[in-house]
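User: Continuing from earlier, I have the next pair ready.

Assistant: Great, send them over.

User: Here they are, in order.

Assistant: Folding the first of the pair now:
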Amino acid sequence: MSLADLITTLRNAGIPDVLYVTDGGLGGGECYGIEHSNQGWMIYYSERGRKTPLSLHPDETAACQAMLALVMRAAGKA
């Protein structure tokens, strides 16, 4: 799964954009995020202008699958 696939899947599932951010930013409030870094792909929680790392993945596919599961659970769809 690519980042583009993740975004499409979340939108098709009706997940509100405010629950996640996919550009490595902080989002509009409390939300989950994903970003690529030198260490790999990081999943984080954004809150009060801070990123709290939740998990680190070696590749995009693993990170996107983990992010999908996390956001779907948070939205009550898993």
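And the other member of the pair:
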Amino acid sequence: MAALSLLAPQVDATPAPAALSAAQLARRGQIHDTAQKFEASFLTSVLQTMFQSLSSAPPFGGGPGEDMWKGFLAEAMAKDMARRGGVGVAPAVEREMLKLQGLKDGGEAGAPTGDAAKAVNARDVVA
């Protein structure tokens, strides 16, 4: 019997954080997406500049299409980098956008942060 009492779930006595309205959650999701897209755009510019100095030897490189495909590669890499956390531009932009909208940063009670903020956007919220 003592072994069963050790497996009993622990109950947290702290009060639950206040829930945010659906409109606030949608706005936070949109701000997060916009900040992430901004960082991806910034990283695309950085990577395209970096790729300009690279050249590939034939038979796998060169030709008129190489420059065009380098741009696509830079954009795809930048979007993936931003999605995985980027270089820190998106969180700073997101904080400033939240301030401009009159919302508190992620430390606000009930405010989604990190992966939870990514999951929330206008199309996920049902009014």
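Worth noting for the second one:
The radius of gyration is 22 Å. The chain is about 55% helix and 0% strand.
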